[in-house]
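Render PilZ domain-containing protein in 3D.
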Amino acid sequence: MLEGSPSVVIVGEAEVARGEVSVDAGLSLSIRLAEVLGDLPAPGDEVVVRTFEAIRGRREYVVTVESVNQEMLVVTDIELISAFQQRAIVRVETDLPVTLVYEMIGDELVDAEIPIQGRMLDLSATGFSLFCSTALPEAYRFGFHFSTDFDEMVLVADAIRSEDVPRGHRYGCRFVGTTQREADALHRYVLSEQIAQRRRTDGL
């Protein structure tokens, strides 16, 4: 939940308002404005909201303005575009099978002609490392199914870095178009896996 998080509203490159998230309704956010620094956006405008969360650090969302006045901004269509923490993005080592069943053709995500098998080597809310015995095309954007105890998701990612390793290739992958719900689900999964791994290490 984002309620209570200090927030900055950004239009283009300019900060136009500062405040605090007063209501996180899941599909919308209400931001109580404490300081207006420039021209406020109009309903229907797409802007960036930057939040500062105690646990998850600084996060940026692209949103659509639903309503606005000098005291309150309500936004919808919330999509996480970046996440930062004061130290490192929370990441957990994994060894999960993954099948790349979708690929981006133009602007459309379609069924891959030949699904590619791989293994997820680590995971954070913003990306993961992927091992494949098959080389991926340059600038490859793909989709796959990911399940946790509580969520079923189709995630989309870009392969942005590659490294030749024994028996295949290791790729650094960044999630694309992750919704707030998906990012929160990934973050919960990472934290729960960290706790479980720590307990196994400690023999609990």
